[in-house]
């Protein structure tokens, strides 16, 4: 693509599920024909679907097999990729600024840069919300990014190796993992870790008893797990978790997290070597500093149904970083991958309208196709919603197959059906040769 100033400049900040799908579609539709300059900016060089991070953390999934190189994908789909982290915005000058990028030694690798735009789309996702709880930032693990998932996996393996090579008895809580937050992330991670403990023993760390030495606990401040899902699903999931030995504590508020465990509001101390905070989300701090754009109480950019920010028609935001209203529903659009996928598809039409000279932009209406929760290889639970099926509860093998298909739909949006089919077949073949658990 040339750098001619006449082209409409589209800058997308954030290459998550929605941002990368949008850049891919816009690149194919406008970039390939030279009708617009499409640039995607992200703080990392590779993309991995965020709902997979709990599998990366547990070692079930090798991220190298699922990551997408932004540079290679951009070249194949007619848009540009630039490495950068959102720092500031000048709405009058229509320029967005990226912070300098440092290398592993702390030296400046890429300087601060400015990107002029005609249409700016912000899709930087969300981060974990600690709600100001003492000790969380210092002593908890988060699963917001591939880097954090990799760090968790390495720490988990080191914990098992240290326990296996011990002399004498285990220390209190040495192989305990506490997950704070009983949403989908916390639930799915607990089930994966249950399998990981057994796989580790199978690969030779036989001084560890997964049933006696490893304790998995989920702590939830609310009265129930999976509060966003129907009670019949949450009760089914709870029953299965307890069946595999995961302790689930509801109505328990964490007041402080320390190095060797956590304290609760009732005065109980829960010992644990590894603490995972998965209790809520918020927008990144930078969103509150973007030249007066409106944010809500959890730092999400407030947008209209068109996904335009309330104070600037040239700036759109979507996905987890945006607070989008729903018609006839007091709650905003939930932070789910299916919402980001739907919004990305709508924004292609919106930007096409802008390039065509204006007109009324479409308004986003959230279509809830249901929710699924996977309990690793044990089972899955969820609901499917549609005009023909209504609200249908699914579980077991059928739910597990549907759950896996959601990721493949994301792959199809990025690569198309043929490449996705080849990728699935290749992973199936190589999966029969590699270990069931990532051991490094």
Q: Note the beta-strand portion.
A: 25-35%
Question: What is the CATH superfamily classification of the largest domain?
Answer: FAD/NAD(P)-binding domain
- Overall outline: globular
Pairing-aware structural class of the strands and helices? Answer: alpha/beta
CATH class wording of the largest domain: Alpha Beta
Taking Cα atoms only, what radius of gyration do you get, to the nearest Å? 23 Å
Say what the CATH topology of the largest domain is: FAD/NAD(P)-binding domain
Main beta sheet strand tally, sense and closure: 6 strands, mixed
Kindly state the percentage of residues in helix. 25-40%
Number of structural units classed as domains: 3
Number of DSSP E strands = 27
Calculate the terminal CA-CA distance, rounded to whole Å: 41 Å
Give the second-level CATH assignment, the architecture of the largest domain: 3-Layer(bba) Sandwich
Residue stretches low in confidence (pLDDT < 50, at least 5 long) are: none
SS element count, helices: 10
Description:
By secondary structure, the protein is of the alpha/beta class. It has 3 domains: 8-126 and 283-355, 3-Layer(bba) Sandwich (FAD/NAD(P)-binding domain), CATH 3.50.50; 136-280, FAD/NAD(P)-binding domain, CATH 3.50.50; 370-431, no CATH class. It contains 10 helices and 27 strands. It has helices spanning 17-31, 53-58, 70-77, 136-139, 146-164, 184-202, 231-243, 337-355, 396-415, 417-431, and strands spanning 8-13, 36-42, 46-47, 68-69, 80-83, 85-90, 95-99, 101-102, 108-110, 113-116, 119-122, 127-128, 176-180, 215-220, 247-250, 254-258, 261-264, 269-271, 274-277, 281-282, 301-302, 308-309, 312-317, 322-323, 370-375, 379-386, 390-395. Helix 1 packs parallel to helix 8. The longest helix is centred in the C-terminal third of the chain and has 20 residues, at 396-415. The protein is globular, with a radius of gyration of 23 Å. The model has no long low-confidence stretch (mean pLDDT 92).
């Amino acid at each position: 693509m040339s750098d001619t100033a006449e082209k409409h400049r589209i800058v997308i900040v954030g290459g998550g599920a929605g941002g990368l799908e949008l850049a891919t579609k816009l690149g194919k539709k406008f970039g390939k024909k030279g009708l617009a300059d499409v640039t995607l900016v992200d703080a990392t060089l590779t993309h991995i679907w965020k709902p997979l991070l709990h599998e990366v953390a547990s070692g079930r999934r090798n991220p190298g097999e699922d990551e997408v190189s932004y540079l290679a994908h951009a070249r194949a789909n007619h848009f540009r990729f630039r490495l950068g982290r959102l720092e500031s915005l000048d709405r009058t000058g229509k320029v967005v600024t990226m912070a300098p990028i440092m290398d592993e030694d702390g030296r400046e690798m890429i300087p601060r840069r400015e990107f002029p735009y005609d249409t700016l789309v912000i899709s930087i996702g969300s981060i974990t919300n600690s709600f100001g709880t003492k000790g969380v930032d210092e002593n908890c693990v988060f699963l917001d990014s591939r880097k954090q998932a990799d760090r968790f996996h390495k720490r988990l393996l080191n914990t098992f190796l240290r326990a296996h090579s011990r002399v004498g008895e285990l220390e209190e809580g040495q192989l305990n993992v506490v997950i704070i937050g009983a949403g989908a992330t916390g639930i799915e991670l607990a089930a994966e870790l249950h399998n990981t403990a057994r796989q580790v023993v199978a690969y030779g760390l036989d001084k560890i008893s997964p049933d006696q030495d490893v304790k998995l606990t989920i702590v939830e401040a609310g009265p129930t797990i999976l509060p966003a899902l129907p009670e019949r699903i949450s009760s089914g999931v709870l029953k299965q978790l307890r069946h595999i030995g995961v302790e689930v504590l509801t109505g328990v508020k964490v007041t402080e997290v320390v190095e060797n465990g956590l304290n609760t509001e009732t005065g109980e101390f829960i010992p644990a070597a590894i603490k995972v905070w998965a209790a809520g989300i918020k927008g990144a701090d930078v969103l509150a500093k973007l030249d007066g754009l409106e944010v809500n109480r959890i730092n999400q950019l407030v947008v209209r149904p068109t996904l335009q920010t309330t104070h600037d028609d040239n700036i759109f935001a979507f996905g987890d970083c945006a607070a989008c209203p729903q018609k006839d529903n007091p709650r905003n659009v939930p932070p789910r991958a299916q919402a980001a996928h739907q919004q990305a598809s709508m924004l292609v039409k919106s930007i096409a309208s802008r390039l065509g000279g204006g007109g009324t932009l479409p308004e986003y209406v959230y279509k809830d196709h249901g929710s699924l929760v996977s309990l690793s290889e044990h089972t899955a639970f969820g609901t499917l919603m549609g005009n023909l099926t209504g609200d249908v509860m699914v579980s077991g093998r059928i739910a597990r197959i549907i759950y896996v298909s959601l990721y493949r739909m994301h792959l199809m949006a990025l690569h198309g059906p043929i490449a996705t089919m080849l990728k699935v077949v290749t992973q199936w073949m190589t999966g029969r040769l590699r270990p069931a658990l990532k051991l490094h």
